[in-house]
Amino acid sequence: MKLKRGISIEITKQLTPDVASMIAQWIGGYTVIKNQKTLLAKAEYAHWLAAEKPEDARPNVNTQVAYLCQDLPFLKDIPSQIRRNAGAKWFEAMNGAKAGLRQQPTLRKKHQKRNCYVTNELFIVQALADGRCVIQLKNNAMKGAKGQIVACFVMPFSKEDAGNALYLSRQGARFWLSMSYDKDVDILNQTAINGKVSQLSDDALMASMTGYDLGIVRQVTASSGQVYHFHDQEMVRLKKLTRKTRRYQRRVARIARANDRQQGTNKRQRTKVELTAQAKVTKAKNKHTNICHNRAHHIAKAISQDTPLVGVFENMSLANLIRAPKAKVCPDTGKWLSNGRAAKRGLNKALAKSTLGKIRQFSQYKLEQEGKLFVTVKTAHSSQECAQCGYTDQANRPSQSVFHCQQCEHQGNADDNAAKVLKK
What we know:
Elements: E1 2-10, H1 17-50, H2 66-71, H3 80-98, E2 114-119, E3 123-127, E4 133-138, E5 149-155, E6 162-171, E7 174-184, H4 190-198, H5 202-207, E8 209-214, E9 220-222, E10 227-228, H6 232-263, H7 272-306, E11 310-314, H8 318-321, E12 328-329, E13 336-337, H9 341-353, H10 356-369, E14 373-377, E15 402-404, E16 411-413, H11 414-423
Parallel strand pairs: 8-11, 11-14
Antiparallel strand pairs: 1-7, 2-6, 3-4, 4-5, 6-7, 8-9, 9-10, 12-13, 15-16
Helix pairs in contact: 1-3, 6-7, 7-10
């Protein structure tokens, strides 16, 4: 059975300055086209609403990008295939939004990770003797010597399994190449596993299932008692990087304030010293992110191997968890009341750095690769429910780590109890 798989590799160190500049130009032009079409679509839609929605003047969504080259001449410097792909992908996104399958396209900012879709006119796939292949990137789609090969990247799959397109991504000075490929696997798909699980008895089902509770003090706690968290050495490195980031940020702020006072304005070009100091902040933050990302992959792999057949996770939204509390106003005096915003700020930072979303995302596809089932369940009151008797009460959680049932007197770690509740 062949399944579609994807792979992403960092290619920053394999690029010469000229090739990196070329790819950055492609990604920049691709992003400009999608942003411009998004802005134009919003303006046309607003005009249509103001005109009371006449049916003959409904905004037309299309893939055309040629008109943008007249207003933005620099777009002519990138291959026409990149321009065409930008219009086609934007059109595909808009149609998906109309069908309710996804959100409407939004503006992509410079500090965000950006990409461009590259079809096989701009690269060649060559086979290697060891079953791998080489992606040869060209600077244009012309054949022969006119289509010069500018970079080569070795991929861990055969030429026959390679896809017909790839993505080139960029964030800051780092570049990535992502591509899909076919992989022969001898496993059941999720529908077949679901049918197999539905035929099990209650006892057999409980034996083949593991619940996983996500948290901050413990990143993941399994109903079997296994705990997955950062190693001690990683925790030390993360604390050092956090202190280093704050120190560099204070340095950047001091330099900026001094330069602002000297020139009498803060609307000025950043100096070389400021840019160097800011680069150190970015480097420290990237190291912190890489450690968390790597740990999330290791945890997800361990979960996929330790799960018997079904992995059960919380169906929670991190965006809702880190949302700031609403402001409160006293109805009598009209003054602002305390809403716990300052205390919630620390919790939000911890949640944002805990990579809980990545762990659940990585666990899903790794469980599917192992031929196991990924399931999410509602989390309402799961931390307050007793795994022994089912009694639910807020008083069952006297503290963050302690669970004490007020009915059956069951005591234990709160995360262990929550994982067992999710399994039930």
